[in-house]
Amino acid sequence: xxxxxxxxxxxxxxxxxxxxxxxxxxxxxxxxxxxxxxxxxxxxxxxxxxxxxxxxxxxxxxxxxxxxxxxxxxxxxxxxxxxxxxxxxxxxxxxxxxxxxxxxxxxxxxxxxxxxxxxxxxxxxxxxxxxxxxxxxxxxxxxxxxx
Length: 147
Description:
By secondary structure, the chain is of the alpha+beta class. The chain contains 4 helices and 5 strands; from the N terminus they run αααβαββββ. Helix content is 48%, strand content 13%. The chain is rod-shaped. The model has no long low-confidence stretch (mean pLDDT 79).
């Protein structure tokens, strides 16, 4: 049976099984075959066992090959933002909408004293409007507040 184990080693090498794994599988196969012969298993039964072991080993090798496949993807560096979508500030309290717009790097009209809790019912430029990223500091967002 050592000739059979040698054939298996050659096949594993052809399939690209790592040497350490192939050696471990060969040692296990030799010990299983020797144990089967010692137990008085006939040559036919050993052949069936060997076919089963080969099927298991092929499955293991297939899993190993599937796990070791490397996928190459090209990753390009992110492009700098060229446009900016204005946030939707309609429906928010005036001071909260102003803080959001300032946090986004926009200029915002001043809110009259005492109108901080008034609700924004319109904004200009409109929500989700795209503006060039470099111009966001030049555009002033204005609000129409509920009376």
